Here is the input.
Amino acid sequence: MLKKHPYWWLLAVSFTLAILAHGVFLYQWTQGQYMTGINDGLSQMMPFKHLLYEQYTNGEFFYSFDFGLGAGTFSELAYYFSTSIVFLVTIPFVWLLETTGLIDVPDVLFWANAAVFISVIRMSLVLFITARVFIYMKLPYWPSLFGASVYAISGMFLRHTVYWEFFADAFLWFPLLVLGIEKILREQKPGWFLLAVSISFFDNFYFAYINFLLAGIYLLFRLFIPLTDAEGERKKKLLTFLTAGIVGFGVGAVGFIPAVYAYLNNHRPPFQQDIPIFEPIDNILFSSRYIILPALFVLFLFTFRFYRNKTFRLFALIGIASVLMHLSPLVSSAFNGFSAPQYRWEYFISFAAGGAIASGLGMLAKIPRRSLLIAAALTVSFYTISALLDPAFEFDWIESGIVIGGLLATLAAVWAAVHFREAIGIKIVGSVLLAWLIVFANFYQSEKILEMGSVWEVNKELITGEDYDDPEIRSLLEQIHALENDEMYRIEWMQGVRNNTPIVQDFQGLSSYSSILNENLLYFYLYDLEIDMQRESVSRYATLGNRANLFSLVRGKYIIRPAEDTNIPYGFNEILVSENYRVYENENLLPFARGATDVYQEDKLTMHPPLVREHAMLNGIVLDTEEEGSPIQVTGDITSKFTIEEENASYEDGVLEVSAETGGIDLVWEDPTDGPGDLYVSFNLVNTAADAGFNLSVNDYVTSRKSNESVYKTYVDDLTLRIPSQDRVRIRLPEGRYFLTELQLFEENYEPLNREAAESSGVKDLKIDGSKVEILYDNSAGDEYLSAVIPYEIGWNATVNGTKTEVLKANYAFVGVPLEEGENRIVFTYRPPYFMPSLIISIVAVFIGVFWIFRRKRDKK
Here is the structure.
């Protein structure tokens, strides 16, 4: 049976190898520890799986108000899992387990539990597909499996899976692209290439970019190294590649185009550090975090007779070129969209090494012993030089022992195979290679991931405990929900620096962390309102800086704070108490949708401070329009009433020199105003130190700032901090030299907020159903516009009383529509940007692709 079904046999062997390669993580799973990173794994991967599974199984595929302040999940999470084929295939299996009662409702803990098993299956498929590709290239069966193992059983596969799970999907699709290239070059059959391109475009736009660059490099080498006699007529075959690529793009367009829009609608400050062309970043023979070259690959590179074989020459030259590329940060920047260098593409080296090993093993019994001795001597010399010239190299009995042991075992096995000339010698060499790969993979899991990456801490106790999903907070959330019958209210709470806590704990919050976020919301936080998040970092937003106006405007009804935290926003009253936390309710909450007559021009407000912009949103509506707009009211500037006193520092001409461990300046208000209110303190702050993060405190408020060399620095240095009104503002910084300029102080007495909160709401009915929002609004006041707390993006459409109307960008980051007199029924509906045109393109492309393939088959007959 096994001989009649080689596919099933290969799949069974691949599955067995994948299990052995995950030995450490499978054992850790029995001990209640999980194969997911403690940082992005728990902060992004698991929460996004939880969110998308709930959405998809409930029939909502496009939008969620549970993702930050609201976001198009199909497009913004396409970088992660929303279009991931592996995840989409996983969903029905999990749903069947849930509906049959075999598992409870899947939560973050479930997805953490499942991670290692999904990884085993994914690695099995990578092994199977890659082996079949090598077999198609006329390489022997067992060498093909051994070569595929070099690609699949690698540290990078495990690293990708643990820290950023969707990265590992790229291991699946790249061999399919290579198969497609080979099919066109050898047989002029474009079907596999079209399929691989379609999958890549739909599955993940980021790795489509990386894999197409890698496939282009592979194709470039193949054009100069033909492997068969039937590879003439390059122009014709290049035309086939182009046609299949265009059709494949069309098939995958429904996933690709909305995802690329989300990427382009994201905001991330440009990387400003120098990127060197060449820089040996790590030792790829002994201690690299990314890839360790198998000794057999290095030995084969020095076996010069092998280069007479075109297949070996192809993979060896690609391997050498990719190793040189690995040593260039500029190349890694190019693979990351010319941003910060990221070493995510190096599985290409493993693929090339696997191909070289698979082709070399087939020739092993034919090489002269003298050639082997020369290759062995050069290999040992190369390892020795690599260790001696690496200033960071330190001999480690385990890691270095595995590498050196693998080298010696490889040399011994290859020598035996060459010396005795027996067919079984190839299998012995391959078995030594497999043993080394599995040993090193498990060592990598134990040392590089569990220990160095602190993944050993990820267990049930962490995920269900006070540092991630605190039962005490859960209890408070349940009490809040029991008090509520409102369709939309938001709670400010975040566990530590985990901005996606609202997804984990199933409430609508005020924070989000994702590599792709709505640009309008990021500008709202970073530039338009200068909202401090208490932690400078890109790809996230969180908190509202204790600014009561903003809480009320975006429906921030509750905050949960540690019991000792007394810095509570204006207008919030304590309503619930637990052992360690307090819950406060906003008494000035504004409606989800508000009418407005006064219109303020966004551009004209840019010359005014954030407090004035807050008042404009309270008094009317801010639109990105060229209309003249209402006159802007500027109030509250009390900068001239303060004097400056130095504290362990000197301050002159905007330069602050802090001479002690902590110091700064005091802004002293000689004649403070009586009554309730807050101060808004605005300034521009730049640290002159090259590489030093620091904490800034203004009275009791503390926020952290990144170093100038951090890849996560925002370079947003205009800060506006709210503090309770006091007669002395103490700005404190650690020892160092700073530029502290544009100091301004404003007093907020909350008259506009109190006035607006006292107004009756025109909202008579509100229904929110994922990507559809219905509002019944009584416009008896004759307002011209309505703004709603829905983040603006071009996927939203609206009708007012059944008539389609333009969706305006209102209040910097939200939606607005013109109103009619009397009763208005407003319906907002969301579809991913360009979704319908993309879907039409995909459907048409599928028909074109099928017609093209069948016509080519018919013409060949």
